[in-house]
């Protein structure tokens, strides 16, 4: 078969060389020396200019930004005013500015490329130019212009049946829609990009997909996407975007508290010393978080400060603000003034919550705690209220987003399934489509019910927060005012009342914080002796001789020890509380095996409850009517329900007024694990 490009200086061949420079820069550097010499001997200025562009792109992807700009300038001089060559030079120079967040240096190049990009005879270069122009429009918040240019590029790619270009365009659209908070559309676009991408382009798509999953809180999905790709390349990144994938993986596993693994990824690959400043700044921030998690505060502070300095030079503002908040959170336990300084810096960078409400919420939280530590309680209260109101809204929006994303993913899967079915026999397709629709309807109904329950819980959360804190706060303010005016002999009484009210608020906030943290914290998975958990919980409760505990043989299950310990502590505390004071008060814990599930029963002979109120027991902030209420915030049994559901089980309860109550915890049985010995009462 004859060579498609017999002349190595042919422009089409040189376009391919420039694209290769982005994936294998060192290889291209070795190839271009002989080509450049030949172009000079032939006085082929167009080829010489394109080769200089290829060298410039190679230098850029090797981390030498300034050298690449010098080469682009030489290439422009050699272009001789030929529009297609000039468009090539300007396009790659603009791309280099975008890659290095140097948008302020774009100058007139944008207007020049906008004017001459039609000069490209090579359709793929025209598509590339539209992608670059769209990226600049987006950076200037001209969203409609950016989407319009990407749709123009998509139309060209469709007409040429170029799936790879379609993948690139879908990925760029996904990034735009994600930044706008339109995650359903972003998911559809990135799934389409992932479906059509090939070769090294896949690293870019995987990076975008992981970023979107992280934004909507699907941390495990993001990690799975990255790990799947890294396994394919044997964890040996060779191109820029693959190194970004490693940075993202390290950041994710820091969030999962796997600090040593994150440090190992960054330091073994020397990502924190990368010549690419964006990689270096992110890697330094990750090291700061990891060492903070390990308690090495001085080391963490140095990494955060260095990261902040780099982000201040290269942007973006949100990255600089996030690192400032990380520093503020670090300083909370060491210098409240410094914590307030960095949280204020972050808020000044963001200007308002509109730029990034999640970061704004974190900054408010740090500020509230900082003011409280300095004794500025009124300021702490006001800022804390702002944080709580914003966080309630963010939680509600996040749940809505998760539902919408679930719908979008299901719709994408349905569309792909239908497309596949259409390629098979029509008769078979009808049956599969009907089954798929039935499955989708079932999933939609299930997610709708979950969303309704979540919305009810968030509404209750907001109400309870206001309800439970209002009274002690009013007492604090009232007694504090009296301290100024009452005789000295009475001040101790009012001071004691202030301390008691503050203690009550602290207990309330601690309970809410523990509840929120348990909701977000990933679960461990290892063999756990239920008998030991019950024994430890009973000892911790220290209930004295008022209630007898009877423990039968209990199983070993697979799960999170801390979370399951919380389950049995809450159930035992609940049982003891409602049995105490009755003659022969007793709590019995026993287990049975039922349909592949261990059923652990916690039974008491206490006051019991109305069977009609059983379902309300497991709702957060929901308490029974007077005479049957559970003391506190109503978080304990809600925690039980959440933890057991997260372990693949379920909970039910039985009871009657005056006849005691039983709580049944169902947990999956694992072959090979046996009943444990009775716990000591």
Automatic annotation (TrEMBL):
Instruction: Please state what class of enzyme this protein is.
Output: transferase
Which terms does the record give in the GO molecular function aspect? ATP binding
- Keyword set, alphabetical order: ATP-binding, Kinase, Nucleotide-binding, Phosphoprotein, Transferase
Natural source organism:
Deinococcus aquaticus
| Reactions catalysed, as given in the entry | ATP + protein L-histidine = ADP + protein N-phospho-L-histidine
What EC numbers are recorded for this enzyme?
2.7.13.3
UniProt domain Histidine kinase: residue ranges: 464-671
Residue ranges the record marks as coiled coil: none
What name does the UniProt record give this protein?
histidine kinase
Signal peptide position in this chain? none
Q: Which PROSITE patterns match?
A: HIS_KIN
User: Is Iron one of the keywords UniProt gives this record?
Assistant: no
Taxonomy, superkingdom? Bacteria
Residues crossing the lipid bilayer are none
């Amino acid at each position: 078969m004859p060579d498609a490009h017999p002349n190595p200086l042919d422009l089409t061949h040189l376009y391919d060389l420039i694209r290769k420079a982005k994936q294998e820069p060192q290889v291209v550097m070795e190839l271009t020396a002989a080509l450049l010499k030949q172009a000079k001997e032939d006085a082929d200025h167009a080829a010489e200019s394109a080769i200089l562009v290829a060298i410039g792109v190679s230098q850029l992807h090797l981390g030498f930004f300034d050298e690449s700009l010098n080469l682009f300038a030489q290439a422009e001089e050699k272009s001789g005013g030929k529009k297609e060559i000039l468009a090539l030079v300007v396009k790659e120079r603009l791309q280099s500015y975008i890659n290095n967040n140097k948008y302020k240096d774009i100058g007139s190049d944008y207007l020049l490329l906008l004017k001459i990009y039609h000069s490209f005879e090579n359709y793929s270069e025209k598509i590339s130019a539209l992608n670059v122009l769209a990226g600049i429009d987006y950076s200037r918040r001209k969203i409609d212009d950016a989407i319009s240019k990407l749709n123009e590029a998509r139309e060209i790619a469709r007409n040429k049946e170029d799936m790879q270009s379609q993948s690139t365009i879908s990925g760029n659209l996904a990034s735009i829609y994600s930044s706008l908070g339109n995650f359903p559309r972003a998911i559809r676009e990135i799934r389409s990009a992932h479906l059509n991408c090939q070769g090294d382009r896949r690293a870019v798509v995987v990076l975008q997909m992981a970023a979107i999953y992280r934004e909507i809180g699907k941390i495990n999905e993001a990690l799975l996407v990255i790990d799947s790709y890294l396994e394919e390349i044997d964890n040996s990144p060779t191109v820029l975007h693959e190194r970004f994938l490693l940075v993202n993986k390290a950041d994710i596993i820091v969030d999962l508290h796997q600090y040593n693994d994150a440090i190992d990824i960054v330091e073994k690959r020397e990502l924190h010393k990368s010549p690419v400043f964006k990689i270096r700044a992110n890697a330094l921030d990750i090291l700061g978080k990891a060492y903070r998690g390990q308690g090495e505060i001085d080391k963490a502070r140095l990494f955060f400060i260095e990261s902040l300095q780099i982000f201040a030079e290269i942007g973006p503002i949100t990255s600089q603000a996030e690192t400032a908040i990380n520093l503020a959170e670090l300083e909370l336990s060491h210098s409240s003034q410094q914590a307030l300084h960095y949280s204020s810096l972050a808020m000044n960078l963001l200007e308002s919550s509109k730029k990034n409400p999640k970061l704004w919420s974190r900054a408010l939280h740090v500020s509230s705690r900082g003011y409280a530590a300095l004794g500025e309680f009124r300021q702490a209260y006001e800022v804390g209220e702002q944080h709580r109101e914003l966080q309630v809204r963010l939680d509600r929006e996040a749940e809505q987003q998760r539902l919408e994303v679930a719908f979008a993913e299901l719709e994408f899967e349905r569309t792909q399934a239908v497309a596949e079915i259409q390629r098979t026999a029509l008769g078979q397709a009808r049956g599969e489509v009907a089954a798929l629709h039935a499955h989708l309807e079932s999933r939609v109904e299930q997610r709708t019910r979950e969303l309704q329950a979540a919305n009810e819980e968030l509404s209750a959360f907001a109400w309870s927060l206001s309800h439970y804190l209002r009274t002690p706060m009013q007492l604090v303010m009232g007694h504090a005012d009296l301290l100024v005016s009452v005789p000295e002999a009475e001040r101790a009484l009012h001071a004691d009342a202030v301390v008691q009210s503050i203690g009550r608020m602290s207990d309330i906030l601690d309970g809410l914080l523990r509840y929120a943290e348990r909701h977000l914290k990933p679960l461990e998975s290892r063999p756990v002796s239920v008998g030991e958990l019950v024994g430890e919980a009973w000892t911790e409760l220290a209930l004295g001789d008022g209630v007898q505990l009877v423990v039968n043989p209990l199983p070993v299950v697979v799960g999170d020890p801390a979370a399951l310990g919380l389950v049995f502590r809450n159930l035992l505390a609940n049982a003891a509380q409602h049995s105490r004071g009755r003659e022969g008060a007793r709590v019995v814990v026993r287990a049975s095996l039922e349909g592949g599930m261990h059923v652990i029963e916690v039974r008491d002979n206490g006051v019991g409850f109305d069977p009609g109120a059983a379902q309300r027991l497991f709702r957060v902030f929901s308490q029974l009517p007077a005479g049957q209420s559970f003391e506190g915030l109503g978080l304990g049994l809600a925690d039980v329900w959440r933890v057991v559901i997260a372990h693949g089980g379920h909970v039910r309860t039985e009871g009657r007024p005056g006849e005691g109550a039983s709580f049944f915890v169902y947990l999956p049985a694992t072959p090979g694990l046996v009943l444990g010995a009775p716990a000591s009462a």
